[in-house]
Write a structure and sequence with these properties.
Strand content: 5-15%
Largest sheet: 3 strands, antiparallel
Low-confidence stretches: 175-189, 245-253, 347-351, 357-365, 428-442
Mean pLDDT: 82
Strand order of the largest sheet: 3-11-10
Shape: globular
Radius of gyration: 29 Å
Structural class: mainly alpha
Distance between the termini: 51 Å
Number of helices: 32
Oligomer: single chain
Number of strands: 15
């Protein structure tokens, strides 16, 4: 949820509508500084602030002992129903937290060794070997200090200690580390010559600036497919909370057992969680290790911790804005905000803005006109580069700017009321940061320092509409317990990548972006000749939607796309590939249907006509039936799912074109069902048909084809079709290595399958 919850948006809209027309005009035309000056007093304690407090009470982010009991009981219930994976996740919400609480609240010394051994056992089962070994070491020292080792209880503890040491040694000796070593070798093979002017970029790129395209990257030499062009760590990232974190009425269930990304990934580094290390101050933040928890606390979470409910209410963009200024530090924020006031009225004009930036002292001659470069003339992934991303303040609607301003003011007032201002301004030691302000200091007016912070935050919230980068992860869909793993890209976090933001959009991009934790890697997806611009796709792609839909979606970025794909469709008046292949066909002769509201058969000998509305309704009904079939599959009712899918396939053939993407999706679903039943040949046959349709839409070397071939390789591998599996693995490797790199998880799994197949006896290989 990028923006605030709907109730807060409506509250802000009512406040805007109630303002005097003259004040609305002043706010609409005001600079960011003046908007904050005018708007600080518009958050009324008895109205908007009170409404926000009510909404925040519905976001449960604080510590609640009753919640631990609830999750434990729910875990027991799910375990009893054999939903072991879900049960384990719910148990992990509380098990280590319970032990940590026992240790920190004076648990009896004589019982501590037993608790520590339980902790080590839990950590071992969840793969945290070093943490388990540390817990064992503490337990062993504790037992030795007690000195009494002859009692049966102590003998039992020593026996358990010895067993756990052996298990840790066995786990450390297993071949898993070899995969990491292999990955390190492959990473070394990707080392390139670093760019002198752009941090994290290849020397094959150059940074240019012109009035029409702004800052952009251009190939300075010929680039091959799969070549790494950019590796950048996010300046800031915030995990997306997931749908179940959207606020509920207090009359509903007190706690939500649905598992979201907020429960599955580290809130700092975005690694997948095996056993979470919870924040000791709130119930929301979770980390993969104590180190991540400590670093997050020092850098930003000590401030964010008490604001959890407010930040969940105000949305991810507001959260990213706060974390950005916390990471930058007040001194740097203040410096750049004050500097921006020097030419505030010109900052909306790209040419004047370029001139304004070039006057910054100490800028290297070669990059004097390019915004965001540091005093040495380098463009780095720094706060200065983030600050210089365009906020497009004059292009946002006045109502939207008012909503963002009111939200930012609410955060800063909460910081002031909670006594966190000194912490934010880096003025006091951590021991003093939790002390509340005096009544005089919390009278309602923001301090000058917090107004500076609020101005920077407002700038960042507006920037995010055009410059937010979604960090995605390939996540298992469905039950996840089959032999074939079906994965799809899922938005995991929202981040600022200042260097990646230099890439302009094209509906037909020439690069692919992949993520590992908070790091992004950009690779060429096709040959790029020297002098050609490097293009990213912001979402709307020519293979997924027509030009009209793409242009509408791209309007949020405040530009009209003039990429080659859009120009070809607009100027030639030819229908896009998507609209042609995703069209309806004649129920009688199967020829394509043409027209707008009333569709007529394109076959002159056929007089069939039908309303678009009726066919669209038929399509919706079909999609509902497919959804029902997938629910049956998740409920392990594969036979019933097959019957519904085959009926849907028969019905779809009567009014959808053979190349329609939904036809491919049904083939994919049928492959999934047959794989669940272990009918590998049938599964492969359906998936191959799906791949044919995907290839028609996305092309033979697209990442979409790579993912489909990965699934086909799994099916052929499990079905013991050795020669077909090996050829499919090779093709999938070739495609995915271009888009995702040789160290990606899917490439690793493909290589493991290939190794396994090649190690089979020669007699078996010859038979297959």
């Amino acid at each position: 949820m990028a923006l605030p919850v709907e109730e807060w948006r409506l509250c802000a809209a009512r406040r805007w509508a109630a303002l005097e027309p003259a004040l609305r005009e002043r706010l609409a035309a005001a600079s960011l500084r003046d908007a904050l000056r005018l708007g600080c007093g518009l958050l009324r304690p008895e109205a908007e602030a009170a409404a926000l407090r009510r909404l925040c009470r519905r976001a449960r982010a604080g510590k609640e002992p009753a919640a631990a009991r609830f999750y434990r009981e729910e875990g027991n219930r799910l375990f009893g129903r054999r939903h072991y994976g879900a049960a384990a996740r719910l148990y992990s919400q509380v098990c280590l937290e319970d032990i940590a609480r026992a240790e920190s609240h004076g648990y009896p010394d004589r019982l501590l060794p037993k608790v520590l051994l339980r902790k080590a056992e839990c950590l071992l089962c969840l793969g945290r070997l070093q943490d388990a070994a540390d817990a064992l070491s503490v337990a062993e020292n504790k037992i030795a200090v007690d000195g009494i080792v002859t009692s049966p209880a102590h003998q039992t503890l020593l026996k358990k200690l010895s067993q756990l040491k052996t298990k840790i040694h066995e786990r450390e000796s297993c071949p898993e580390p070899a995969r990491e070593a292999c990955g390190d070798i492959q990473k070394k093979s990707e080392i390139w010559e670093e760019n002198d002017s752009i941090s994290g970029a290849s020397s094959s790129l150059s940074l240019n600036f012109d009035r029409e395209r702004g800052r952009h990257l251009v190939a300075s030499q010929d680039i091959l497919p799969g070549q790494s062009l950019l590796k950048e760590e996010a300046f800031v990232s915030v995990l997306c909370p997931g749908e179940s974190r959207l606020l509920q009425d207090s009359s509903e269930a007190a706690w939500d057992t649905r598992v979201t990304n907020a429960d599955l990934y580290c809130h700092r580094c975005l690694r997948q969680l095996l056993a979470s290390v919870p924040c000791r101050g709130c119930s929301y933040a979770k980390y993969c290790s104590q180190n991540c928890a400590d670093v997050a606390w020092e850098q930003y979470h000590r401030t964010e911790c008490s604001l959890g409910a407010l930040l969940l209410t105000l949305g991810v963009f507001c959260h990213v804005a706060l974390r950005t200024v916390l990471l930058a530090g007040f001194a740097e924020v203040s410096r750049l905000v004050e500097w921006s006031h020097g030419g505030d009225e010109d900052l909306h004009n790209p040419e004047a803005r370029c001139k304004h930036l070039s006057e910054a002292p100490g800028t290297r001659a070669g990059t004097r006109g390019i915004p965001g470069c540091n005093e040495s003339g380098q463009y780095q992934s720094s706060y200065q580069a983030v600050f210089n991303l365009l906020p497009h303040a004059e292009k946002h609607s006045p109502e939207h700017k008012f909503l963002c301003m009111l939200s930012v003011v609410a955060v800063c007032k909460q910081l002031q009321e909670d006594g966190l201002e000194a912490a934010v301004l880096n003025q006091e030691s951590s021991e003093k940061w939790s002390k509340p302000k005096t009544c005089e200091e919390t009278s309602g007016e923001l301090s000058p320092e917090l107004k500076t912070l609020a101005e920077a935050m407002l700038r960042h919230v507006l920037q995010l509409q055009c410059n937010a980068q979604a960090i995605t992860v390939m996540q298992e869909s469905g039950s996840g317990d089959g032999a074939v793993v079906n994965k799809k890209p899922v938005r995991l976090a929202t981040a600022f990548f200042p260097v990646l933001s230099l890439l302009n959009h094209s509906c037909c991009p020439n690069i692919s972006v992949s993520f590992s934790g908070t790091a992004a890697t950009v690779r060429a997806s096709q040959p790029i000749p020297s002098g050609q611009e490097i293009f990213h796709c912001y979402g709307p792609h020519r293979c997924r939607m027509g030009v009209a839909e793409r242009q509408q979606l791209l309007s949020q970025y405040f530009f009209e796309c003039r990429c080659q794909a859009c120009l070809d469709e607009l100027e030639s008046d030819v229908k896009s590939v998507v609209s042609v292949k995703n069209s309806f066909c004649c129920p009688s002769c199967r020829a394509p249907m043409q027209g707008e509201d009333v569709l007529c058969c394109s076959n002159g000998a056929c007089a069939i006509s039908v309303s678009r509305e009726s066919l669209s309704q038929r399509l919706q009904d079909l999609q509902q039936q497919i959804k029902k079939a997938l629910e049956l599959l998740r409920a392990r009712k594969a036979d019933q799912a097959i019957k519904i899918l085959l009926k849907c396939q028969l019905d779809a053939g009567n009014f959808l074109s053979p190349e329609h993407l939904l036809m491919g999706e049904m083939e994919d679903h049928l492959a999934q069902v047959y794989a669940t039943l272990g009918k590998w040949r049938e599964a492969a046959r359906h998936l191959e048909r799906s791949i044919e349709i995907v290839e028609m839409h996305h092309g033979p070397s697209s990442v979409e084809i790579g993912h489909e071939l990965f699934k086909l390789a799994q099916i052929l591998f499990n079905g013991f079709a050795v020669s077909e599996a090996l050829s499919t693995i090779q093709r999938a490797e070739e495609i995915l290595s271009v888009h995702c790199g040789p160290q990606s998880t899917q490439i690793q799994e493909l290589q493991e399958m290939k190794t396994c197949l090649l190690e089979l006896p020669r007699s078996i290989l010859q038979r297959t």
